[in-house]
Automatic annotation (TrEMBL):
This is histidine kinase. It is a multi-pass membrane protein. It is found in: Cell membrane. The lineage of its organism: Bacteria, Pseudomonadati, Pseudomonadota, Gammaproteobacteria, Lysobacterales. Gene3D superfamilies: 1.10.287.130, 6.10.340.10, Histidine kinase-like ATPase, C-terminal domain. InterPro entries: HAMP_dom (IPR003660), HATPase_C_sf (IPR036890), HATPase_dom (IPR003594), His_kinase_dom (IPR005467), HisK_dim/P_dom (IPR003661), HisK_dim/P_sf (IPR036097), Sensor-like_sf (IPR029151), Sig_transdc_His_kin-like_C (IPR004358). It comes from Stenotrophomonas tumulicola.
Length: 479
């Protein structure tokens, strides 16, 4: 199972289960809570009615007195009420009055007059000076519909202490069931929203965490594959600390390997020039003709120059290769890049009798490091001039290519031999110049390739359709 899915499931299970159990508690508490509230209102109403019934009960005229007449009129009323989206068109109260012995003397429904209610919990406890209440089935044997009964003592109006009867006020629980069901539905709906919102938050949190983890994974995979890559984006958390630690480790490990590789490469490339210099120096110590002496001295200077070029190019390439990402970025007009590149090669081109032309195209622009791009174009032009014959022309052309810009150097030289086409970007690989047979450091094209990589582009060298060579530096277009 993926780490992101594990994180999400763990978060969702914790929050979802907590929300579910809290929701169930609320749902389970709705019914008793509403019934307790109903009981409280019944207690208030029962005590008010007990005070109103006391004079008629003491006078023995309860059934024909004003109290019962008022109750009868009240039960015929239509409240025309809308209580929380539920219509209420009749009163749900039932009033029962017993005498001091618990015998029913009045029933608002007229059904139980004369019945002994002294054993019912509401009447029984009230007759003993306690609070009396009970919940009984509305129909005997059917526990699905119950009725709440609350009793209040009826005291003698003369002294307010002598118990002369008990008034029981009842209301069916089904009258409040719609409100309970509506409240439970609302809790379930809100709970579902809460769980859904928790899931969304879990997805967002997991995505946020996994974004950093995936970046670290891609970074580690690229480093293990030996690919130069930018360090993970800075973050102010443990993932950011881990990314910075990995970058420091990569730099230390790559720095050591990089130095070892370059020391080996430089040592290998220096052997031939140093051997030539040593041989010429030993021969110069012997008597020889002036022409030979001059030739050996010139060989020493040439080999020294070759070493200098190799070291300079190697340092430039090392600086570029050590950058896993582009250090500076700006929008650059292709025309300005071409102008700077032509200025840099104008003198050697004139000395070799080679013409150089630029065709920057229509207001093309790229994004990147101006210095590196100028150096890359300079290297491509140097190669083209070295392999071109006197009187030929080297062209610097720009054109749109897909979603980027292709900067091309086209020469009319001898072209690339078949055996060398797959090796031109190898470090220290060089072909002999047609004019004098000399070889370069073999680091110019690797430098161009590294610059292309840093800019998210690519470099290619291919035979031209009409002879010569076409060197292309493709770069993403600005914007």
């Amino acid at each position: 199972m993926r780490l992101g899915l594990k994180l999400f499931l763990g978060f969702f299970l914790i929050v979802g289960l907590a929300a579910f159990f809290v929701m169930r508690v609320f749902v389970d508490e709705v019914k008793p809570g509403v019934r307790q509230a109903m009981e409280s209102t019944l207690v208030d109403a029962a005590n008010v009615l007990a005070e109103m019934a006391a004079p008629d009960l003491k006078a023995g005229n309860l059934t024909g007195g004003g109290f019962t007449a008022s109750l009868a009129r009240a039960q015929r009323r239509d409240p025309k009420a809308m209580v929380w989206r539920f219509p209420k068109r009749a009163l749900d109260y039932r009033v029962t009055v017993t005498d001091a012995a618990g015998i029913v003397v009045y029933d608002s429904l007229g059904r139980d007059i004369g019945r002994d209610n002294s054993r019912w919990n509401d009447v029984y406890r009230t007759l003993r000076g306690e609070y009396g209440a009970r919940s009984s089935p509305e129909v005997p044997g059917d526990d699905s519909n119950t009725v709440m009964h609350v009793a209040a003592p009826v005291y003698d109006p003369a002294d307010g202490r002598t118990l002369i009867g008990v008034l029981s006020l009842s209301q069916p629980n089904r009258s409040i069931d719609p409100f309970i069901a509506a409240s439970q539905r609302q809790i379930m709906l809100r709970g579902a929203w809460l769980i859904g919102l928790s899931a969304l938050i879990g997805v967002l949190m997991t995505a946020w965490l996994m974004t950093g983890v995936r970046r670290l994974n891609r970074y580690a995979q690229a480093v293990s594959a030996g690919e130069p890559v930018a360090p993970p984006r800075p973050r102010r958390d443990e993932i950011g600390d881990l990314g910075r630690a990995l970058e420091r480790m990569r730099r230390k490990l790559e720095g050591k390997a990089y130095v070892e590789q370059y020391v080996q490469s430089l040592t290998h490339e220096m052997k031939s020039p140093l051997a030539a210099i040593r041989g010429a120096a030993e021969l110069l110590q012997e008597p020889m003709a002036d022409a030979d002496r001059a030739r050996f001295a010139r060989s020493i200077v040439d080999q020294q120059q070759r070493l200098t070029w190799t070291i300079d190019k190697l340092l430039a390439l090392a600086e570029v290769e050590q950058h896993g990402w582009l250090q500076a970025r700006e929008t650059l007009a292709v025309a300005a890049l071409f102008e700077a590149a032509l200025d840099a090669v104008q003198l050697p081109a004139q000395a070799a009798g080679i013409g150089v032309q630029a065709e920057p195209g229509m207001a093309l622009a790229v994004e990147g490091d101006g210095y590196l791009l100028r150096q890359a174009l300079h290297n491509l032009l140097d190669n083209a001039i070295d392999f071109s014959a006197a009187g030929s022309v080297v062209r610097l052309v720009a054109r749109r290519a897909g979603d980027g810009v292709a900067l091309q150097v086209l020469d009319q030289g001898v072209g690339i031999p078949e055996y060398a086409r797959g090796r031109v970007f190898e470090r220290f690989y060089s072909l002999a110049r047609p004019a004098d047979g000399r070889r370069s450091s073999g680091l110019g094209l690797p430098f161009v390739q590294e610059v292309a990589r840093l800019h998210g582009g690519r470099a290619t060298v291919e035979p031209g359709q009409e002879g010569g060579t076409v060197a292309t530096l493709w770069l993403p277009r600005a914007g």
